[in-house]
Each structure stands twice: as structure tokens, then as C-alpha cells.
Write a structure and sequence with these properties.
Length: 166
Amino acid sequence: MPSGGKSPIGESMADTVSLRYHSTFKREIRVKKIRGRSKQYFTAIAAMAVAATVVGSVPAHAEGSRTSYIKAWNADKESSRWHDSQKDKKATKVQFKGCNSDNSSGFSAPLTLYRAKSFAPDPDYGKKTNKCNTSDWGETKTAGDFYFKYHSTGYTISVKTVNISW
């Protein structure tokens, strides 16, 4: 800073600005010796900078999730599609809660995860048997539109809550 204590830009700017990091999520900006209207302007700019930094510091979560339900599904019924961009390398999971079936031996839902492809058979990622729990296919490694299919063994299922995460 030049002698005389003034900012090279002019009197309305800050003479001293210090930035101090407390942790990954907390930032503090301390401004000293602000003159005139630029104090409100500088405070607003500083607040936006801190907010942008904090938002950018949030840890990664699953790329996407959806909650739905199943009502009276029979053989080969398909879920709606969702898009997985594979930006986060998270596993694809389907969780069932509140399950009912007309199977006298209990709830059992064979599910297969597919990636939709145009003009070609949809590749599958394997069959999992969901017994009113979570079916986990792991990381699919390829971006695309996904869905699961119920492969009935002659029974109808209903599920109050279906949580899909990818």
C-alpha cells in the first residue's frame, strides 16, 4: 500500500482486509477502516464470497434419489426410469419398506436392474431378491437411464415406500 495510508484505488476502498479460515465449513472476513458507502457494498460482496465458498465446500452425497411406491405389481412390471451421470461413483440401491404379497410363504421380489439402450437389448446388472430390504447393485460404471423390473413367480406385490438411490 502506498504511503499516506490510502488504497491505490481510492479512499472508498478498504485499507485492510484479512481472511481467516476456521474450518472446512466456516469462513470469516474481517474488514477494517472502510469509508463511505463502499462499506455496505464491500460487506455484500464479502458475504456472497463466503456463501459461495461454503456452498462449494459441502461434501458429496449420492448423485440422485427418488421415493415412490408399488401397488399390485405382477410379472415383468418395470419401474420408471432415472438418469445416473456416474459423476459420484455411488452404488445403485432399491430399498423396500412396508411390503405385502399374496405369496403365503412371505414377501420375496426378484428384481433385475437394467440400463435402457435405444435400438439394442437393455443390458442388465444382475438379479437381486428383495425381501422387504435393500437390493444393492454397486456402482454401475456407465452413465445412462436405469430402471428395475419385477420378475414375478406368479405373485402380486405392493410396497408402501420404495427408495431408489444412485
